[in-house]
Structure formats: C-alpha cells, structure tokens
Hints:
- Helix content is 35%, strand content 20%.
- The protein has helices at 5-16, 29-32, 52-65, 118-126, 144-149, 157-160, 195-199, 233-247, 259-267, 298-308, 321-332, 334-338, 356-370, 399-420, 436-442, 445-458, and strands spanning 21-22, 45-47, 69-72, 90-93, 100-104, 109-113, 130-131, 167-173, 179-182, 208-215, 217-218, 222-230, 251-258, 282-290, 314-317, 344-345, 348-350, 375-381, 386-392.
- A five-stranded antiparallel beta sheet has the order 5-6-10-8-9.
- α8 (233-247) packs across α10.
- The chain is globular, with a radius of gyration of 23 Å.
Amino acid sequence: MSLSAAAIVDQLSALLGANAVIGQADQMGHYLKEPRKRFHTGAAAVVLPASVEQVQAIVRWADDHGVGLIPQGGNTGLVGAQVPLRGDEVIISLAKLDRIRTIDTAAGTMTAEAGVILENAHKAAEAENTIFPLWIASQGSARIGGVLSSNAGGVNVLAYGNARELTMGVEAVMADGQLYQGLNSLKKDNTGYDLRDLLVGAEGTLGIITAATLKIFPKPEDYETTIVNIAGPEAALPLFELLRARIGGRLNAFEIVPQLGLELQLRHGFLDQDPTAGPSPWYSLIEVARMAGTEPGALQSAIEAAFEKGLIDNAVFAESLADRTRMWAFREQMSEVQSKEGASIKHDVSVPIAAVPQLIAEGIAAAQRLSPGIRPVPFGHMGDGNIHFNFSQPVGADPKVFMAENDEKMHEAIYEIVLRLGGSVSAEHGIGQLKIELLKQVKDPVALSLMHTIKRALDPKGILNPGKMLG
C-alpha cells in the first residue's frame, strides 16, 4: 500500500528531523518552478539532507517504501528532469552538500560536493590560480550535481569539453542506498566498465551524485575577445576553420548570433551599449586564451587574415574587462531576452559542424513556410555544432494561439532536418520529461533497449527519478 503525503512527511521528519523536510505545498514553490514554466506538478515533500549519510538513509527509506525520489541541484534544468512528473515523488535537494573537499593543483583536480554552486566552484579554482572551465548562463545558481547529471555543455566545450569530459570520477548513492565511491583522479585506470560515464548524463535515473572529482586547468594570463561581422553561417564555417588552423587548442569559443538578437537586447535594455562594430546580418563572438609566457595578438593576427580572405567585414576587440563582460552578456542573454517578445519555440540541437549552415538555412525556410512572419533567432556554439534554434512569434501575434498552432509542427520540421543531417535532438539540455516521446522515436532501438536494461539492473524498483528520460 502506498504511503500518503502526510505519512511521507512524518516518516522523513522522524528520519532527518523536521527542519530538513518541507511538507507544505505553499513552501515548495522554489523547488517546483523550473525556468521555462512548462511543468506544474506538486510533490509529496522536499527533503534537504545535510550529509552523504543522510542521502543514503533517504534512499534506503524510499527503496523500502517504493517512493520515487527526484534529485535536484539548482533547479535550472530546461527539460523538467529536476521537477515532479507524477505528483507523489519526493524532491531530494542536494543544496546543503556544498563543500569543496580538496583541490590538488599538481594533479589538476578539484573534488566538489553536488550542492556546490558552479560559480563558487569557479571561485575556488581561481583562488588557486586555476580554472574550472565549465561556463553556462545559469552558473550563478546551477549546482555541480545537476550540471553533471545533465552533462552540461556551455561556451567552453570547444577547448575543454563538456561536463563528462571534465569529470575524473564521481561519488554516488545507488538505488539501494549503497555508496559508490568512485572519486578517481587517475588519468589512466583500465579496470573494467567506466561507471562514471553511466552516472554523468543519466539525469539522476541511475544514482544520485553526491560529489565529483573535476578537472581544473592553469589559469590563462589573459583573454583576447572579439565580435566580428559576418554575412551568415556559411561565412562562419571557413572563418572557424581558419581560426582553428592558426590558433589550435587555445580557441576557447566560437559563437554566432543573428542581428535580431542584438536588436532585441538593445530594445529591451539588456545592454547598456552596442558591443559590436556596427550593423551586420550576423555576428560571431570569438575568444582565445593567452597563457603565461605567450605573446599577445594571436587572435588579432588571425582576424586580419580573415579580413584579407573576405570572410569578415568588420570587428571590434575587447579592450577592457567591461568590454569582455558586455560581449559575453550579449551572447548569454539571448534566451532570456526572447521572453520579452512574447511566445517562443526553442530547440537545443546539434549537427556536424560542416552542416550548421545547411541546418540554419533549411530550418529558417521551413519555419517561414509553416508560419509566415515568424522571427528566427538561431544562435549558439558554432564551434561544436550546437545551435539553439529558436523562433519568436510574429509581431503582434497572440502568444497562446501562436504556440497552439505552431509548437508541434515546428518541432517536427526542425527535428526532421537535424536527423537528416546526422544530428541530435538534444545537444546539451537532456531528455527529462520534455523529450521522452521524442527519444523513443529517434533513438536507435538497440541503444534504447540497452538503456532500459541498465535502468532495470541499477534501479529495479524504479525509485530514482521515475518516469524521466525513458518513460
């Protein structure tokens, strides 16, 4: 017999203490309201364990009573993995597990607990003259556990890789309450299956990450940052190839943004001044890390070569920290500013880098056929093939009518193009509850069957983030 919400609160309060349990619906809002406001299901309770041992105790209790647990970090996920699906689950917030356990600059590692805010991990690394290079728009509230569980990407993937590539090992509580102690800092360890890679990106469906050993890197002496004017994505591709050939691994970021993105931010006061060199159909934000002992000017030299080849027609370089901050704000505020223009349809997709221009051209054409007047706002990580292919409603349209008439058919059109080009329908946001049915449609059947087999083996009662990812 399933437990009532009242019984769940009582038993968890007895287990952890009343101060660690939230049972009143009107006090759960912070934990239930995800950024895109798509999901509105309540929870039986929210628990805030203060130690790994308490996490284990909660999981053992849930295993005994068949209660679903939803691991949650900073609640910044965009596909609903971190909020309830059914309404009878318990959200287990890792916010109190927020210690940096160790930093080893010789090994190039930092061990951080799951509740550490990403920005605080950055500060801890920088205090040791190193960097943890995973940089995302929500880093002021996203927490390490959620960042790893969603295998977050961000703007530095080009140089450093995504969350999985930045993780040496993890500590995690498994579905029966056992603690997997995998905080490995070895670069070479061929002793069987890589369980780290199972848990990173699993969205809390296979285990609850409580800590991780992360890669840190020497801190660059400075950054060279520019915004260049380009005719379009088709011009961005040879520009990217030129930069990579001349600069190599020091090329940190290569982002593209359309002119409409700049217009929206200036219109709504998101920028105090225009960070670009002047009007252009498209812009590319490019950044290069300059390490100690190297001469400045590598990026400027490459940009001059791009001018000579006719790949760009103007550029502006950051001459101060304020300039660099403004340039990055221009890129990072793209999703947020769209909300000021009414409804928007968003896609987080990736294709092989060489196919990005074709994706954008075909996607815009398809969208405009389906909805005349729709405003395409594709932007993002050109350097790794991940484009946030977004569309804002036509000017003056009714938001609800626009979404009702266009959301589903727009997704179908964009995903058809993405898959035809050999891409992915979820580049860095994950599956959660938003893309469960889509995953069933696009995933290789053998891969999907193997995923179900792994889930049943590691979580036979289905208590870890029930219903997410695999349905």
